[in-house]
């Protein structure tokens, strides 16, 4: 298969169907490129001589310079002609944003087959059609055609996302931006006439900017190739996946031939397992997984230590750990005795350790230091009500986590004050979850059975 | 049992252990009362003649006017003396915020027994000890001793919360405030020397300000009385509950006698079922339940209609509905034909109906109007990317929901733009959930098996 890496670092981009009209999809894309992309931009549209101070070309063939990527945003019945031009202009690849293909009718399906033929016969790599395309925080390529007022763009980070669904890609992108979680690249490949999730996983396996890959799948085309690509990727970095359309009854209509379909979903589960892919079950989990793998490393075992200043939250976390099959670390008796000397008498020493509302920043440090020695991962459930807690708490927890080289997850439910502190924690690489269940799910993700003897 | 309603509408409050020192718990409480409570406030502390421009009394007996509620915030070894004074002053009840009782040591347990004796023998109703006490948005009673900078207070609403855990009460209160969900009363009764969850459920059953009751339970004292009280309450309004400390192994230590304890948890589940209480399983679910019951009514059946402008999100919701045992409504063929005439050709008509990124406010109205006729509840998954969507969408959905008198739930994942629109939806009584799973859980809560033939 021909390389696709040029999509993520193109030296030049042609925008086929570029428009000066504000609000038009192609104008949104052009503006995004002008804002963030540093390479050459060539608008193409026979109607204009220039757009937004860029020279506009009649057709791709007129550009006379090397084109790495052509972004195609023209009506569906003009796409094939546009791709022919792009091939003649010797572009390496095209992102076909235009819709109106196999998702619409049989005429559209025929056109899509023709697009596929261009990819196979002319060697043009094609993302799409009917897709949002690519958002790349490093190169500045951005074909997501929703204006920034309606859709924020995340900053730079180590997370890359492959999504078959455009709406899912949009939602998660917007949420990640709001949450301050950075990304490397997000790709929505739509109808998958050519570039598939397997191509992308192969690319991400070797992509140094990508530290973790998250995949949203409705249906995989070539199961065997997918497993190979996903395995190659998961050998190098965490790969998480969500599968939707589990029940055809749900996906298509209210008819129930669930039995057969549930079986098919079982095949996906088996494939994920074989490929070392961590399956998550919903949007929440997917977001949690993106958060935790963006900030933390795998644990070396499944023993959890819980420390809190709120007894009830500690109990909830302990419950959730047991439900999720994690183990609560046992502290040796002499450690407990020692802790009870160092900590105020009203503290409840054990696992969970409850430091109560009189807690100080240093109490947390003392308790975590001892508890983390006898565990593989810690969950710190810090409620910010206690008056003596300050921002130093963040530093203290980070210090212990780094010194002992073990992951720590923060559970910090609450309102605006807690949200401010969440930013502090996450800026220092400690992922914050708002609920006991979320924190425990995240801990579970960091416990990678492959890596535990 | 003697009435406890005076706690929620006291004509006068004595603050035993009042202090002028900013940051002290009793000072936080005094400030809160001065800010929000309209009745008489009597600070009591032998050290001062006045505090914050209020006359300060040497002891409760010196007040010489009727005292409804005494808030006791003194060191634990001074609590019994304070309660004796309060009894002599003929107060109706006390909220003992002070800690240091059975949760601490055997001396504390003895003192707590003595507190209990006062309640039994002298007829003083007592909330606490070791509790946050009461936050009442209607009367302005607020013994939650965390300053408002660290803990926001929710506005007025129909939700009342009973929580055995102080930290849970704090977290949920802070989150509700941030989310703009109002409450009637929140009670954290701590060690439960006297007033219990059963007393509170009995009160809330008849409390007209309370439209829905949410209960956080670690362990119930008198199971039979709890079931009776909860049933009386759930006959009149929705009662939701979360049980934590499901596994003693989790709650107490890493020892495993899970088998026996799981059995005990089964008893709670059976009790909830018998009492008509909807059990929720985690903090997320608890919050979702608070949100949905604050804004919506029960559905009359379990047929769900899904309409969206993002195909992938629609599929996820359909998946979740099937997983959760809800039914997808089937639209009659002539309705589908009719809809396909009224809606643009690229829409996918069915259940889910996908209006795609070219959707308008009125497309949503047309689709929802038809779909809700053949279903009991609708989930509208509105992504705000589509450029033609405006605030009128909120009005359109509300109008259909009210006219057809059926509940509608919004699923609106995304970032800042979506969060702004969430406020609009919720201000008009349409609860918004950020994930497909959250929206479906909420729909499930509104489907009350008791009320469905």
Could you please describe the fold and organization of this structure?
The structure is a homodimer of 453-residue chains. Chain A is of the alpha/beta class and 453 residues long. Chain A is built from 15 helices and 19 strands. In chain A, β11 (212-217), α6 (223-234) and β12 form a beta-alpha-beta unit. The longest helix of chain A is centred in the N-terminal third of the chain and has 17 residues, at 106-122. Chain A is elongated. The model of chain A is unreliable at 253-262 (pLDDT under 50). At the A-B interface, α4, α7, α10, β15 and α14 of A face α4, α7, α10, β15 and α14 of B.
Structure described in brief:
The structure is a homodimer of 453-residue chains. The first copy, chain A, is α/β, with parallel strands linked by helices and 453 residues long. Helix content of chain A is 40%, strand content 17%.
Number of strands of chain A: 19
- How would you describe the oligomerization state of the chains in this entry? homodimer
User: Looking at the structure, what is the overall shape of chain A?
Assistant: elongated
Average pLDDT of chain A works out at: 91
- How many helix segments of chain A? 15
């Amino acid at each position: 298969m021909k390389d696709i890496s040029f999509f993520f670092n193109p030296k030049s981009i042609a925008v086929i169907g570029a428009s000066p009209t504000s609000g038009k999809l192609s104008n949104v894309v052009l503006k995004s490129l002008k804002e963030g992309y540093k390479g050459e931009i060539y608008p193409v549209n026979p109607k204009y001589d220039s757009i937004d101070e860029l020279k506009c070309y009649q057709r791709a063939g007129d550009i006379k310079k090397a084109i790495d990527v052509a972004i195609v945003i023209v009506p569906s019945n003009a796409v094939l002609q546009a791709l022919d031009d792009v091939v003649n202009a010797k572009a390496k690849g095209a992102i076909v944003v235009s819709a109106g293909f196999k998702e619409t009718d049989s005429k559209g399906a025929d056109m899509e087959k023709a697009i596929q033929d261009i990819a196979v016969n002319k060697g043009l790599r094609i993302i799409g059609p009917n897709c949002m395309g690519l958002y790349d925080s490093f190169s500045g390529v951005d074909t997501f055609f929703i204006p920034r007022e309606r859709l924020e763009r995340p900053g730079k980070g180590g997370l890359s996302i492959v999504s078959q669904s455009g709406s899912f890609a949009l939602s998660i992108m917007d949420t990640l931006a709001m949450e301050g979680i950075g990304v490397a690249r997000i790709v929505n490949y739509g109808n998958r006439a050519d570039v598939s999730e397997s191509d992308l996983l192969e690319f991400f396996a070797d992509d140094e900017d990508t530290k973790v890959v998250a995949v949203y799948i409705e249906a995989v085309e070539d199961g065997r190739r997918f497993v190979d690509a996903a395995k190659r990727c998961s050998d190098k970095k965490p790969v998480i996946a969500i599968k939707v359309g589990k029940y055809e009854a749900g996906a298509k209509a209210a008819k129930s031939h669930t039995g057969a379909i549930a079986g098919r979903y079982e095949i996906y589960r088996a494939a994920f397992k074989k490929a070392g892919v961590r399956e998550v079950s919903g949007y929440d989990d997917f977001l949690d997984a993106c958060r935790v793998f963006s900030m933390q490393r795998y644990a070396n075992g499944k023993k959890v230590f819980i420390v809190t200043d709120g007894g009830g939250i500690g109990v909830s976390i302990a419950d959730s750990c047991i439900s999720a099959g994690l183990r609560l670390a046992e502290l040796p008796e002499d450690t407990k005795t020692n802790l009870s000397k160092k900590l105020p008498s009203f503290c409840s020493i054990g696992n969970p350790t409850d430091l109560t509302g009189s807690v100080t920043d240093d109490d947390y440090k003392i308790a975590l230091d001892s508890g983390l020695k006898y565990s593989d991962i810690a969950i710190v459930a810090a409620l910010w009500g206690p008056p003596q807690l300050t921002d130093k708490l963040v530093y203290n927890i980070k210090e212990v986590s780094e010194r002992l080289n073990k992951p720590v997850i923060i559970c910090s439910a609450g309102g605006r004050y807690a949200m401010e502190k969440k930013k502090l924690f996450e800026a220092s690489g400690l992922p914050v979850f708002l609920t006991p269940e979320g924190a425990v799910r995240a801990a579970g993700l960091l416990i990678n059975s492959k890596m535990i003897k």
